[in-house]
What we know:
The complex is a heterodimer of chains A (about 160) and B (about 650).
Chain A: H1 14-40, E1 42-45, H2 47-52, E2 61-67, E3 73-74, E4 80-86, E5 91-97, E6 109-116, E7 122-128, H3 138-156
Parallel strand pairs in A: 1-2, 5-7
Antiparallel strand pairs in A: 2-4, 2-6, 3-4, 4-5, 6-7
Chain B: H1 2-30, H2 33-36, H3 39-62, H4 69-74, H5 81-86, H6 92-113, H7 119-143, H8 167-196, H9 201-232, H10 243-268, H11 272-294, H12 308-332, H13 347-377, E1 382-383, H14 386-406, H15 417-439, H16 446-463, H17 476-501, E2 503-509, E3 514-517, E4 520-531, E5 535-546, E6 552-554, E7 557-562, E8 565-570, E9 572-576, E10 579-588, E11 594-602, H18 605-633, H19 641-645
Antiparallel strand pairs in B: 2-11, 3-4, 4-5, 5-6, 5-7, 7-8, 9-10, 10-11
Amino acid sequence: MTQETSGGIKPKHQRLVLILLAVGALIGASLLAMVALQDQASYFYVPEDIEANPPEPGQAIRLGGMVETGSIQTAADGVTTEFVVHDGIARVPVTYTGILPDLFVENSGVVADGRMDANGVFVADQLLAKHDENYTPRELEEMTAEQMRAELQESVE
Amino acid sequence: MIPELGLAALWLAAALAALQLLAGFVGTRSGNAAFAALARPAATLQAFLCIIAFCALLYVFAVTDLSVQLVATNSHSLKPMIFKLSGAWGNHEGSMLLWVTVMAMAGGLIALIERRLPEKTMMATLCAQAFVALGFYAFLLLSSNPFERLAEVPPEGNGLNPLLQDIGLAFHPPTLYIGYVGLSVAFSFAVAALLTRNVTPDFARVMRPWVLGAWIFLTVGITAGSYWAYYELGWGGWWFWDPVENASLMPWLAATALLHSASVLAARDALRTWTIMLGVIAFSMSMLGTFLVRSGILTSVHAFAVDPERGSFILALLTLYIGGALVLFALRANTIAEGERFAVMSREGALVVNNVGLTAILGVVLLGTLYPLLTEAFDVRVSVGPPYFNPVSAIFFLPMLLVLMVGPLLRWKRDDFTRVRKPVAIALAVTIVIIIRAVFWDGIGLLPLLGLGLAAGVAIASLAPLQGRSLRRTPLAIWGMCIAHFGIAVALFGMAADTAFQKERLVAVSVGDTVEVGAWTGRLDSVNAVAGPNWTAMQANMHLSYDGGPELEAHPQSRNFWAPVMETSEVALLTRWNGQLYVAVGSQGEDGRWQLRLWWKPFVTFIWYGGLLIALGGVLSLIGRVRSDLRRRRGEADDSEEIADAAPEPEPEAQPA
């Protein structure tokens, strides 16, 4: 072929340029993704972790634990709920504004998306509670298992 | 008797797939034409048998035959008929049968009607299709038999997850599956092209309608799924970056890239290797999605069964097919001769940007979806959501939109930017004016701001290719392209407008109280109990009016299903041309007040209109391509622009290395 079509690039290099472009973009995307994931992935905490190694206020995290018996209180506006999540070792106060999931009850497991505020209160954007007997958030499943183990241990001791 | 008939049909179909593989392989190798001729009827008959098996499953669900395990665990005699039928694929085994059936139908269809490819490539395609199908038959028959009988017949079934008892479910999964599995055809074509070293513009022309068809279904499926999540989950969002949503988005991204690169290959005989690669990747993403969704490693409403054996089975299939195809690609890629060259400023150049951008977004979504699984291997549990996906994918998406304004106006091979300066300048000017105007709106985020501006610019630029054409003589494929690109602008506008301007109100009110959100004022008239066939609900009865207009009724419900026991929120939607009011009712507080959540979502409906426009563009383009192909077969002149400005027919290629 005798065309001179590659806009300044030597024709025989065009394929190479295209490959480099594609590989470069993909590597760039991957690096960018990895950096962003380090920053933006929200880590799973139990109350013990929060006490031992408190996350930055404002950083998105996921908190899991048991709802403490007798701790659920509705604020005057009728839509804000305050309660305490514990794991048998530490306790974290939580505030949530919104419609509660239906199976959100005392002494059962809960996973909340949100962030700590400056006063050490966890502000939840969303509560994931059990939807039905077959559909359980993954962390919650393991949380109840851990809880079971802890309880068993306590009863043995 | 009927379940056994279905099972027998499945086994026979699997045997035919084996025959198809053998006939295609031996026939091609040894040149035994009589034996090779068996491959086509084997594929067609297989499709027929799978349809019988699928109808058998529909039948046992319709009559609630509780002696079948799948029916007993997933259905209930009191369910409405439509949900009995849709329940047939609302579970693991049934959905895998649907997968296999669609795959067999796709294979049968290419065997039946595809006559444009060289016979050798065609045989290799049928071989590849049969090879992939065999793995999924094995999976279905050995580890997920949908027709398994129970020794003891239970008095009643367990029922279906109420979230899935929705009319959306009747159509959403079959649509997505046709899209997912339709891409297997592209995969088989790509593998066949590698095997026979036959990558030509003709090959791309043959592959394109199949990809286009699958892509249309994927587009509709994703759009419908987004709307389903929006009104059924009661959170008012239209995209959650849920792993399952990502699993459907990834094949779509790959298929979109494939469509565009196949156009380059068909029209200009360039991007050969890349097109083959995308063909492999698109269906690989479908299989990966199935693995993520069905293996139970992700928990969601879509993960029907947490069964490690099944997970490993699918993982093995995945490794075999994706790994095998990639190895084949690596071995053969350098034997594909380089295609035609083109200048940077050309239609091809713009499409390369499209392809690289889509692939980069695919990579970003893939990494974000798999990251929690990777970290969990190190016992660190994380979740990845919008704070990651939105900005990182936008970095690649926004520049693509700029190129989208220019690309469709450019000529193939090489062009001069000054020729298209005017329409591009207008589109850019509108974009900039809107962005400058919008900066002064309070509290608007960066992404919605750019989204609004670019949506306007892309809307104008997407219609520019029609300018100066006689609209009646414009080929359908051009109309398809313009409408699909316009659909992107419409959807983008909906997303940006909803994100920027939505108003939310969360209140606890007593009966008789009024509530305001945006321009809406409403009153809670009463709350009463209502009952359905398999649920009871508390229903809030409200009257609402927009900006002092006529009063409209809304009846959001909080539903309790009893088989299985579960509560769901049935939201009320009031749709206007400029947006939607979304009302959900929560529980009653101790003081007797009811929780209400109201959103005014300006132009949110444009998101789904846009999705449908994108699909419509695909449909038009498909009709145009098929028509011009039929015409070409009859030997008439062709009106598609492809022939008009395509390069001269390429020399026969495929020089072995």
